[in-house]
User: Fold this.
Amino acid sequence: MVCRHCIAAVTGVLGELGMSDITVSLGRAVFSLPDGMPEKEALRRIDGALVSNGFERIADRDEQIVEDVKHAVIHHLRDEKECHYNLSVCIAEQLGISYDQASRVFSRMEGRTIERYSILQKVEYVKELMGYGNMSLSEIADRTGYSSVAHLSRQFKDVTGMTPSQYIASGASQRRPLDSV
Assistant:
């Protein structure tokens, strides 16, 4: 889960299944089972409902590390003003494990590095900000942590195959989810 809509959707799924005392946050859900419902049965129902809504439950430790890394990257990119460290330090602090361990697990499970994932997320954030139409490319570069507009443009073109200007001229309406990249 990476947004408030996802949190709302998962909360709704759990509520519809009769769960109570539901607390959902990014990547985590805590709830109480209905009286008399065996845990295995509840998990089977939850898994089915989550999958039909485009989600899946993560039970494996390595899968959890990957999800936690993704959330740390998004937090770092979107809330960098609050983060005074580089990405590797933020990941190590948020996960409570070494960056090297997180990086090895992430690369093995995802088939790409944390750095590559971070770049893809950063470009998606740039697209989002460009879509609003109220910031210059220079302001977007500053907001997203690029050292210059040239650096932003180079990385943007490497990822999308278009310059930011070409992307804007294209209508910017064909955004694809990162998981399809």
